[in-house]
Every structure is written in C-alpha cells, then in structure tokens.
Fold this protein.
Amino acid sequence: MKKDYFLLHLSVFIAGFTGVLGRLITLDSAILVWWRMAAAAIIMLAFLAIKKNLNRYQIKDILQMGGVGMLLCLHWVFFYASIKASNVSIGVVCFSLVGFFTALLEPIINRHRFSGREFLFSLLTILGIYLIFQFDSRYRLGIALGVISSALYALFAITNQRVGKHYEAKNMLLWEMVGGLIGLTCLIPLYNVFFPIERLYPVGMDYAYLAFMVVVCTIGLCLLQIIVLQKIPAFTVNLTYNLEPVYSIILSMFIFKEYKELNFSFVAGIALIILSVILQTVFSIRSSKRHCEERSDEAIQSKT
C-alpha cells in the first residue's frame, strides 16, 4: 500500500509540470493536445511492437478504451485553454475541483452509497478555491474553462478505473491515445469555426517542450495513473491530485513570476486544499488497513 501511495504522489509531482509546459508551448490548446496524443500513440505503438506486447482486442474493447481516451483528450483541451486564457495558477487551481465532481459523480456511475466524508473533504477544497479567487476576478473565462476541465477529468478517472481493470495498462494507454486522437481530429474543423487556429505546427523550443510533455508527462504519467487507479479509489486519487497546483504554482513563480499576483487569500486557499488531501489520505490508509485486518480475521475464522 505504501508503494501505491508513493507512485500516486510521484504522478502528481510529474503532473505539476504539465501546466507550465502548456503555457510555454505556443500552439493553440487543441493543436497542442493533438500533437501530444499523436506522438504518444506513435511511441507506444512502436514500443509495444518491439517488445511484442501488442495485444489484440475486439472492436467493442477498442471503442471502450478509445472512449475513455476521448474524455482525457477533452480534459486536456479545456485545461490548456484555461491556462492560455488566464495563467498557470488559475488553470491548475481549478483542477482542484476534481475531488468535488468525483464525490458527486462516482456514486451515480458506480452505483454505490454517497459518502458524506468525501463530500466534506471536497467542501474544504471548494472553500480553498473560493479564497483563492477572491484575490482577482480578471480571469472569468479561464476559471469557467478550468471548471469544465476538472469535471471532464473526474469522468475520465472514474471510467478509467472501471475499464482499466479489464486491460493491460500499456495497451490501454495506446488505445486511449488513438481514440482521443481520432476524436479530436474529427472535432478540430468545428473547433476552428469558433476558435480560429493560427498555426498547426510547433516552432523553435516547442519541439523540446513537446518531447518532454509526451515522454514524461503523458506516457510516464498515464501509465502511473492507470497502475495507481487499479489499487487506490478514484476519489482518493483525484483528491490527491489537488496537490498538483502547489507544484505548478511553485514552478510558475520562478518561470513566469506569477508570485507578484499572490496574496494572503491565495496562500490560505492552498493551505485548505493541502489539508483536504492530507485528511483524505490518512482516512484512506486507515480504511485500507482496517479492511485488510477484517479480511484476515475472516480468513482465520473460516480455517478454524
């Protein structure tokens, strides 16, 4: 269990770079995501082919994995659009609402009882975001896009957990990338009508930033997420990802000098978000230990 939580927090640390890279890369958000998914799909296909680990699936299985990838694709588009419409801090802090949306959506999708404790932890996050957004009201569009992004990621995490139990992680990542890529390719003409795209190709340092984003923040991160979601509840994973803004904001302070816009309300909000993550992690570990002890006791009783 400790190893699973270490991998979870490692994935969160890696995810902290994605917001900064989204700001550094000069492409439109949809085109950025297209290149990200295309490169990731090609690399994963080559890797699996060389390793002779490319599994065959029925069409319904491919469509299922590809549909999950489309949710991830849409999350990325809205996430980077939020950052480009405001700044890194705003975009990544909105991502903290993932825990709230998961607490609402997971009981409906997975058909289990609503957890008052999970909702309470989510309210701490919402209060933290409320304090943060008191410091500046200039970025309403970025905030709106960020809220949509967090809802889409909550849906992705829940469905990815359900679907991921039936498929090998590397192959699932490949078909998620392919599904998202095909879906986005079909949507780009419509996207271009409402949000005209200036440039289709990377230039200059975009190539280096994209390479890091694809290899580390896409393939490496997604594999970690799939592995973690197979062992840890989706709500715990999503709530822990509320720490992503902390890493991204620290990086953006040095790179984009966004520290000039921070004040006491912002710091207090971040503190509440971190508190919600710590509380949920502690309760989750205790619940897991209690569950293991109960199963051990049941096993001993059955033997006697």
About this structure: The chain has twelve helices and no strands. The mean pLDDT is 82. The CA atoms of residues 170 and 216 lie 14 Å apart. The chain has one domain: 2-294.
